[in-house]
Structures are given as structure tokens and as C-alpha cells.
Amino acid sequence: MDDLDVLDGLYEAAVLPELWPQAIDLCGRKAGGIGAVMFMSRAGMIRGFASPDLKAPFEQWAATGAMDHNPRIDRAMLRPDLPVVRDQDLFTPDEIENLLYFKTMRSLGVGWSMALKQFLPDGAWTILSLERPGTQAPFGDDAVAWLTALKPHVARAAVASTRLALERLAATLGAFTALGVPAATVGPTGRMLDANPEFGRFLGQLFLDRRQRLGLADRHADTLLGAALARLNRELWSQAVGSIPVRAGEGHGALVVHVVPMRRSAHDIFAGAGALLVVSELGEGETLGAPLVQALFDLTPAEARVARMVAEGASVGEVAAALVLSDSTVRGHLKAVFRKCGVHRQSELVALLRSPLRPAAP
What we know:
Layout: H1 3-15, H2 20-30, E1 35-42, E2 45-50, H3 55-62, H4 71-76, E3 84-86, H5 87-90, H6 93-98, H7 100-107, E4 112-119, E5 125-132, H8 141-178, E6 183-186, E7 192-195, H9 197-200, E8 207-209, E9 214-216, H10 219-230, E10 243-246, E11 255-261, E12 275-281, H11 290-297, H12 301-311, H13 316-323, H14 327-341, H15 346-353
Antiparallel strand pairs: 1-2, 1-5, 3-4, 4-5, 6-7, 6-12, 8-9, 10-11, 11-12
Helix pairs in contact: 1-2, 1-8, 11-12, 12-14, 12-15, 13-14
């Protein structure tokens, strides 16, 4: 592997964000390390990702919440005179030996780092940290010189990736605007990043732009939204209610908020988006038809048919007879419907699919 391989990897990742882990891995190995991690701060949020072999230990470390209080980042930002910093430039030998942070890093198989800082437009910044086991020698002066020479290439690739990512998000919201559909993007923690004008008319009344995360004024719906945003992690998403019903209120009719997780290339590291929120306004009418119920609440066709019949007043036995199913099968479908619609009993399901769709009393 030569320097051209490293540069090609960086510039490829600039337009294909899913390749950033592989690109920074080339940087780490070229400098004699075992990989790399990269951090980015944008809009007050710090995000990070790791090269393939460091992904598991990095996620284990990040799960402790330590990313928000990383002493390496804190001290690196206090040294504007050094574009590339090593642990020995920022900490005393005693601190490296005794600080809990370094003990934790060594327990995860890494111990020495060499980091390149880069400030980006709009107040964002990135840190590319090359990693080496604590059992090896720290990075030397030759490695620092090599990484310093790489600085303009990392900067150009990161800036390009950032701008493209933001343009893609803007284009996504623009597409929903053209359709007249309210939509917004939220970060990994649920804080709102951007919204189209259609979504904006709900802010302050239906949606609450809180410091911790975007919320809903309806308490029950807000609980479901909070649970969905907390489960944006790929392994947890299947447990979430992804389509959240909201009853009619002052200034708006009944609607459903769809939480669409960003995945793979859509889950752009530099844009910081965790999910897209899309609002379906239901308007006024009678009980929703089975196809619409299925689409709005992520139901199977069988679950949608059961939900509609129950909402129209049919008992479990009547539904079973009409659909040629056993009572236990119908109850199983109902249980799945309750979970996906965020309700706990039959009366709540009926109220959800019927009452909110009628005009509000004057």
C-alpha cells in the first residue's frame, strides 16, 4: 500500500460516505497503527465511527457514554499550535499510566493515538485519530510528519463529504415539500436538524423542539416517539413503534408520524442524521380502510383486516368467523396490532381508528 492508495480512499469516501471506515483504516495502517477512529462535531453533537477492526471496541467504549467526555479531544482542542497531536504531547507519563481513560483504552486493545484536527465550515470540526496498541511504542516523529502532510487531503475530503451530505438531506426534504408532505430530519439523539415549511407549521403546537430531542405535545404519542428515537440503533429498531398515531388537537386533525431510520449510505456520517420524520395527515372521515391502516401502522394485510373489523365493532369471534380463522389466531393478530399502533386494549384501537377522524367539536 502506498500513499496514492490512501489518497484514493479519502477522495472516494468524500462522495461515498459509507466508505469512510475503510478510508481511515488505510490511514491508520499506513502510519503503522492497527486502524483509526474519526470524530465529528456538528450542531453541538459529537459523532464517531471506526475502521472495521476497531468497530467493536469503539462501540463498546461509546456505549458507556464516554464519547461526550473524551480527554483526548478536550486537550487536543487546547493546542491550536499543533495540527497533529499524540498522547505524549497532551498528557504526562503519570496521567497516561493512571488515568481511567487510558486504562479503559488498553483494556480494549488500544493505547496510543496520533490525531489530526481539522476545522470545517459552519462551526463543524473533525478529528482523525490513528490507533496503536498500548503494548507497542507510541507514534514517532516520522508518523507525525506523514499525517501532517495528509492534512489538506483529509480536509478537502471531509468538507466535500459534509457539503454533499447536507445537500442530500436538503434535497430529501425538498422532495417532500414538492409533494406537500411535512417532513424533518433528526440527529442520532433525536434533536431536530432541519424541517421543511410544511413541518414547520406544526412546531410549537404539535411538535416541540426541545433541547434533548424533538417531542410531541400529546403525551402518549411523545412516549412512543421517544421510544422510537431511542431505538434508532439497528439492532433495536425492530422493537420500536415506527408509525405513531397522534389524536386530533387544536389546529390540526388526526395524523401519523412515521420515523424512518437512516441506513447505510443514507446514514451519512457527516450529515449527522439519525432519522427522517414524515407526517401523514388523516383528515376527516369514517373508519380507515384496511390498505391505509396497513400502510400507516406497518401492519401485515391480515393484521390490517382484523384491525379494521374490530374498529367497526366486530368481536373476536365475529372476526374469526368472517376471515375463517381461529379465535387464537385473531387474538395473536390483535396483539401485534396493539404493539404496532401503540395501544393496549381494544377500546383504544377503536378510538384511534374512528374517533380522531371525526371533526372536532366546536
